[in-house]
Amino acid sequence: MPSLHLMPTTVQLLSIAFAAYSIWKTLPSSEKIEYAAKAVDNSGTVVDIKCKVYPILSLQCNMVWVLQQFISEIQIAYHNIRLQFGPFNFTTQHRWKKPAVTAKTRLEDRTRDLKLDNLMVNLHKLKLILSLHGLMSTRRRGPFVSVQIMSRWSNIVGLNVPIGGFLRKYRHVFDVFPHPIKWNICCKLASKMKLLLQEESDVIINMELDNVQRIKKLLMISVTGTLHIHALRLTKQELGLPDDFRESILEKYSDFELVNLEIVRLIDKDDLDEDLKVAEVEKWREKECTEKWLGEFETKYAFPINFPTGFKIKAGFKGKLKDWQRLAYSKPYEKEGVFRASTRGGIERAVDNGYIVVTTRSKKKGDVVKKVRNDEHNHEAAQHLEGHPFVRRLSQDEQKMVGQLTEQHMDPCNILSTIKKQNPDNVSVIRDIYNAQQKIKNEKKAGTTPM
DNA sequence: TTCACAACCGAGCCTAGTAG
DNA sequence: CTACTAGGCTCGGTTGTGAA
């Protein structure tokens, strides 16, 4: 059946059929057999519906069957009067069902990278297991924990299935056994998993020198030459740093200096090995130049790009990609001069603290929006984070405060300044206060709506 | 028949744009 | 400054499918 938004007449047809059905079902049985009615369509035209609904058997008189009868009759009627959209009814407002953006259409539009999807699923499982292991290792009584106690950790680790099933599912990780004396079910790490954890900690110890190089490179990229230790802590898993990297690396090696408890600095940045200042991508570019005979113009700012399986390349995409690959940007180890980000091809490209920033323009009704949000994208390290909605988010206490101050009829701008006074680190903007007020109002409305 | 996995689907949250 | 809404995103539950 065609979708409604493509067939506007179907909307009218169905609405008239439903109207006819709602009258028909209230009629006594004797009048139901031969049913005649007049329905009025959206344009005001009266449509005669004569329909024989027979035989009156309960099985055949269900809603769908009767509606089918009406629809076929109305189709004939419509054909006869030739109701069409046009000057006759063009002043009336028609609202078509807009194409729904559902998970289905989203999935259809998306190019799935199954490898990455699987990787993320497995990573999620691994994190769950590791957080369970972390909780298990905090127990003092021994190398095993009662499953009953573990079941209380479901909320802590974010487990949404019963713990018993989860432990049984990963038998190679968890060893479930009855306690020899108490006979309650206990759990300990399987020997295979213990070996894996030991192997991982050995690898981390052996990687110490690599980790030193890695942190050095990060500090070289940093515009100020310093890094927050908390930032390193947040990415320690990705960087492969040990838990005690502050003591075992930052304090141990004389290349680093702790400015204070939370900031680390690189000593004698200029005396560093020149090889360290070469990004891996430069090696790839050199290879491209020599192996593919590409010019410097083509490869100077290019990056290796891999598309997920099944990625559909649209017409003109390759050309745009080629243009984008040529856009200049400040390289991470270049400190001299400030580069002005180009806006050629509707795409901006710049390096922000060592990360590549790519901004594509939003499109509306097929036209590219000409507005450039920030023409000077290349800038020094952001001192304020208002541009990032995540850091602007109000805490629960602050949201509560917005609610209380709104009830006291305080102006949003004053609410904002009050919050900022209480918490000088707060980087929220007036927009966030409006949104918070809107949210509170919606919550109140939902509470008063009779269900 | 059971189990694991992939695909599907919709609810809900949040941000930001826009008209008035 | 408010009200409304589009769009992006995540999450959790359900359904379909194929292998053991």
UniProtKB/TrEMBL annotation:
<dbReference type="InterPro" id="IPR021099">
    <property type="entry name" value="PORR_domain"/>
</dbReference>
<dbReference type="Pfam" id="PF11955">
    <property type="entry name" value="PORR"/>
</dbReference>
<feature type="domain" description="PORR">
    <location>
        <begin position="112"/>
        <end position="346"/>
    </location>
</feature>
<keyword id="KW-0732">Signal</keyword>
<protein>
    <recommendedName>
        <fullName>PORR domain-containing protein</fullName>
    </recommendedName>
</protein>
<dbReference type="InterPro" id="IPR045040">
    <property type="entry name" value="PORR_fam"/>
</dbReference>
<dbReference type="GO" id="GO:0003723">
    <property type="term" value="F:RNA binding"/>
</dbReference>
<feature type="signal peptide">
    <location>
        <begin position="1"/>
        <end position="19"/>
    </location>
</feature>
